[in-house]
Amino acid sequence: MTWQYARKVQRGRDATVMLWSVHGDGRRVRDGELIGARERLSWPVMAGFGAQHVAAMISATIFVPVAVGLPPSTTLLFSGVGTIVFLVVTRNRVPGYLGSSFAFMAPLVAAKQHGVAAQLGAVVVAGGILIVFGIAVKALGVRLLESVLPPVVTGGLVLLVGLSMAPYAADPFQSQPGIGVITAGTVLLCLVLSRGMLSRLSLLVGAGVGWLIAIASGRIETAKIDALINAPWFGVPEFHAPELLPSVMVLSVPVVLVLVAEMVAHVKAVATISGQDLDPSIGDALIANGVSTALAGAAGGTGTTAYPANTGLMVATKVLSTAACAMAAVCAVLLAFMPKVAALIDTMPPGVVGGLGIGLFGLLGMLGIRIWAQSKVDLTNPVTMMIAGAAVIAGVGDLTVSIWGLELHGVAWGSVAIVVLYPVVRRLRVRREKFT
C-alpha cells in the first residue's frame, strides 16, 4: 500500500466517523450564509447556539409537567435524552430539539384523577402508536407522503403549528409589555444592524438584555427568587413507573395526530430553509419522536415534540447545525440534575418569554406561506382557501370541543381539517367537475 493510498483510506475512515465538518475557519460566517445540519463552528460558538436553544425551550418544557402534575426535572431530563435519540435515529440529517408537547396537556389533566402512573401510561401508548406510524411512513416511502401530504397540506401544517402558539407568546408578553418590547426590539436590532456572529446570537442577546432590565426594575417574581435561594445544587430527578388503563390510554390517541402534524411541519420547515429534500427522513423523525415519548412516559416525563420556538430560531439564525441541538440536549440533561440552575432559568421573566416567542412563532408561521409560494399552490382555489383558513382559525383560536368526554383542542381540529378533510373535499370537487 502506497503512502498516498494509505492517506486516502485514512481520510475516508475519518469522514465516516466525523459527525460534523467545520464550516469555514470555524469562527467567522458571512451574512446570510447557511450553516448546514452536518456543519459546525468552533465549540465555544456552538455552546452559544446551544444556549439559545435552551432559552427557547426551557420555559415551556418546564411549564407542561407542572400544569399536569408530573415532575419537571424528569421531563427536562428526557427532553435532552429524547433530542439525542432524535439526532441518532435521523442519522444527524435533521436538526431539531424535542421539548414537552402541549398536546398532552388536555388528556393528562383529564387523567389526573387516576394518578401519575395512569397518566404516564397514556404517554407510553402515544409514543408506541407514533413509532408504528413512523414505521409505516418509512416502509411506504415518499409516495405516501406525496399523496397524503402535498405542499398545500404541509404548508398549512407549518402555518397552523406556528400561529397556534400565538397565545403562548401573547399572554406572557401582555403581562410584562415593556420587557417584551425591549426583548423583541433587541433581537430585531441585532438581526438588522449587526453582522456576523452577533446577528446569529441575537436571541441570546435579546433574552439577556430583557432579563437584566427585569432584574434592575424588580420585575422578577419573589416566589421564584425564594425558590432559587432554597434550591439545592444537586438533585436526582423523580422517577415513576407507568400503568396501562384502557380508559386513560384512549385519551392519548388524538394526541398522536397532533404529534405527527408537528413533526411533519418541523421537517418540512427545515427542508425549506436548507433547500434539501428531507421527505425520506420523515419516517425516521416520527419513529424518533415516538421512542422519545415512550421513554419519557416510562420514567415519569411528558411526551415530546419538535418545538416551534426552536424551529423558528433556526429560521432566524440560519444555523441548522445538529451540533447546537446536541449541545442543548446535554445542557438539558445536566440541568435535570442541578435544581439550582433550573430554578435560575425559571426566573426568566414572562416578558422575555413573550418577546422571544412572538418573533419565533411568527417566523415559523410565515415559513408555511413560503412553502406555498415555492410550490406555487393555487390560493385562488376556494377549497384550499376555505379549509386552510378554517384550520388556522381553529388553531389560533384554540377551538376546544368535547366529544364523549374527551377534549380536542385547536391544533387537533386544524390538523384533521388539513390532513383528512382537504383531500376528501378536493376529490369530490374533481369528480363534480368531471361530470359537469
UniProtKB/TrEMBL annotation:
Keyword Transmembrane helix recorded: yes
One protein family per Pfam: Xan_ur_permease
Top-level lineage group: Bacteria
Membrane topology: Multi-pass membrane protein
Major subcellular location class: membrane
GO MF entries: xanthine transmembrane transporter activity
InterPro entries in the cross-refs: NCS2
The keyword Nucleotide-binding is annotated on this UniProt entry: no
The entry's keywords: Membrane, Transmembrane, Transmembrane helix, Transport
TM annotation in the entry: 43-64, 70-89, 94-110, 116-136, 148-170, 176-194, 201-220, 244-265, 319-339, 351-373, 410-425
Localization, UniProt: Membrane
GO cellular component terms attached to this protein's record: plasma membrane
Annotated family: Belongs to the nucleobase:cation symporter-2 (NCS2) (TC 2.A.40) family.
Protein name, UniProt field: Uracil-xanthine permease
